[in-house]
Amino acid sequence: MKKFVKFLFVALFALTLIGCTTGGGGGTTTTTEYSVKFDYNDGSEVQVVKVKKGETVAKPTDPTREGYKFVEWQNSNKAYDFSKPVTKSMTLKAKWEKEGSIGDKSCSEDRNQDKCLDPTTFDWDYNRFGFDGKKMEIKIYVGIAAENDPSQTGFTGERREDRQRVRTDVEAAYNVTIKYEEYPADAAWGPSRVAWIQNQKTVNKYSGHIFLIDSNWISTLKKNGSIAELYNTSKKTGLFKDINYEQDPSFLKMTSANGKVYGYSNGSVRPDTFLYYNQDLVDKLGLEDPATLWNEGKWDYAKFVEFADAAKAQLGDESTVLSGEYVRMAQGFLAASGGRFVDAETNTVLLTNQKTLDTFNNLKNLYAKGQIDKASGSNDVSDKFREGKAIFNTGSLWFLSSTLRFKDQCDFKISVVPYPTAEGDGAAKETFQIPMGYEATWAFQPVENGENGLSTKVLLNMLDDLFAAVPPESKTTSLDKEAKYRAFLAKRIDSEASVNALMSVQASKYQYLDLLELVSMTAGEGSHYKLNGFWLNFPSLKEDGDPASQLAALQPIYQKTLEEINFN
Questions:
Q1: Predicted structure pTM score
Q2: DSSP-derived 3-state class of residue 314
């Protein structure tokens, strides 16, 4: 019967191709034809049909094979679309699945399969973890539950319905109930959150299984074994390999210590550290628009000084040009000039480097001229900026989407611009850089065989499955990423010039991994506000300060810490 179906299919094709097209003059017009071979992949003879250029090839009746189930016709190991016109000769090969088996790997075993990119086609038909039938409650600790939990009424993430469906499937597959918990009020952020997680380890009773933290806390938390090792970069072993998940290389650096990775992310690293500015105030003072200057290649440090001098000449004593956290200013200005605080490739601290010293001396000069807010010190929106008494405020990219930052606290139009390049370089020069400081990171309870057979490996697989509704950006095209990023910016920034400016520096060639925060916090025993004094007591902007001597005093402390962490 199978051979008869094959013969009938080929015969019908032959009938459609008999004869040639005859022109009005009685001549014959040649029509380009392609050969399409059907390889049934069962030991039988390959069938060949001819198809005119631009036409489609008819899909044959699904073949049968004893002991196997027909899956699809493939071209170069990918499912063939019979609705597309044929443009070349090719071979279509039948794909079979042995009856009684689950066929290829499940999406939880290998998320890199094509079928796993479409949330409607996930297969959850597996039971690999040996649970004893008890329905466990898995607690995932986050800052704001509504940002992560699709069951929350005020969920703010993407594709809520897909996330809900996938969560239900994951709970059924793992025999668990997933619950998102917010950190206690006294562990809302930073050092307090780190201390809370560390205490969990100390009392040997974890309140949760998975923790959302910033990547710059990784090395501090791993010191006392508060989080689990996920991957060994030198041996290429660990849980990342087990789930076939490829992490962003920069992210691997951010979340590693001594060659071991302790953090996991389902996204990609974005450029960070920009200058937000009061567009209304810039317009009122009749100043050139910074974002426009950037787009024209004119926003270098010399232009910034000219801009700051012109602005300060019109501002009163109660107003200033630049506000925000001092170290953020240094990070931004230094990177834009082609420098950095820490070289991640050579594991070298560069606090005494000439570019670093030049940056600090430039800031000291701006401070002396009254162009830097003397009350600065917070990474949040400064009082002066919120009150309309400062043109610029330092900030990270996540400020754009945070309800606690710019949009909700300021009643004026806000624009954004990258930091100015080095003098004379212009915006298009390759010396310009943007530091990538830290990213949201998932850390795990360090257990290998806990309650009900639960292990860190199970938790990691489970979290990877939860992200199935929104595949990692590494699996989208660069064009899709660009469009998504532009839409993100346009939704939060009113200025088209600002959107274009930020889009121009989103390419990876402008980004470098800034380890200053992680090193400073590790040296400061879990807080960059302790021991070294680098963050709150910014080296010597004050009149009696000496950047060279204060930075030189910190250099050996930071270098020792960096070598202890060992990011390579």
A1: 0.67
A2: helix
